Amino acid sequence: MEELLYILGAAVCHQLPERSFFIAGHQLPICMRCSGTYLGAILTFFFLWFTGGLKRGGFPRTPIFFTLIAFPFLMGVDVVTVNLGFRPPSPEIKLLTGTFAGIFITSFLVPAFHTGFSGKFTEKPIYNNFLFVFIVIPVFAGAMLLTQINHEIVFYITAILENISILAIFTTLNLFIFLTIFEKRFPYPVSGKEMFKIPVPFSFIFTIIELGMIYIIRSSYLPPKYLY
User: Fold this and answer.
1) H or E element: which one contains 68?
2) Is 223 left (phi over 0), alpha (psi -120 to 50) or beta?
3) What is the pLDDT of residues 31-69, one digit of tens each?
4) Which residues lie below 8 Å from residue 103, measured CB to CB, with a gap of 6+?
């Protein structure tokens, strides 16, 4: 059971133990920086759901857009400064800069998802002002809490959240690509029968195949540590 939690992680992350968080003796499926990214992405989704942001389907306005672009740039600064020897690596900074990247990902995937649907979504921008930057505080606090509580149940909760986030991000990206190619919009909410007429199931299946192939190729040439 536990090994299944690592398969998706192996498709998107190097999974080096020395660069990963351990909870109750269990290594998380992805490294510190990736943990920040994928936990940040799914926790941002939950934050937007709780605050009603998921009902707004418009992309951010230009000033906010460029602010969001700076979020993953901070992760790049962290990588470069550590690799050039300007400072030692910090697990907390890796998690924080990964969280910035996760917020960026969700902040664009939510409007991207809405572009293919019409219905209960409005065209208002997902963020109306710069107060959205304070989203970093609860999202990073949640990610930090999950990675620091040394309990086996917390390990499984965190690992499952990371796997859900990986699937959700890649499925939404594939869905956006398919909707863009076919140039269609679908009504929302979607009935059970209509669900199979839209690319959501196909996008999910394609994601499983896509990540599965990456996992097979990677494990063939560079077996993950948990396989030993």
Assistant:
1) helix 62-83
2) beta
3) 999 999 999 999 999 999 888 888 887 888 888 888 898
4) 40, 41, 44, 68, 71, 135, 136, 139
Report the DSSP pairing between strands 26-27 and 56-58. unpaired
Q: Return d(Cα 122, Cα 54) in angstroms, integer.
A: 10
Please give the Cα distance from 130 to 63 (Å, whole number): 9
**Beta strands 22-23 and 186-187: pairing type?**
unpaired
Q: How far apart are CA 196 and CA 91, in angstroms?
A: 43
Q: How many domains would you assign to the chain?
A: 1
Hey, what amino acid is at 225?
Answer: K
Q: Rounded CA gap, 43 and 36, in Å?
A: 10
- Highest mean pLDDT pick, 44-58, 68-82, 109-123, 157-171: 157-171
Distance CA 172, CA 134 (A): 25
Domain that holds residue 16: 4-227
What span, in angstroms and rounded, lies between the C-alpha atoms of 23 and 6?
Answer: 14
Q: Outline where DSSP puts E strands in 65-213.
A: 117-118, 122-125, 186-187
pLDDT of 93-103, one tens digit each?
A: 999 999 999 99
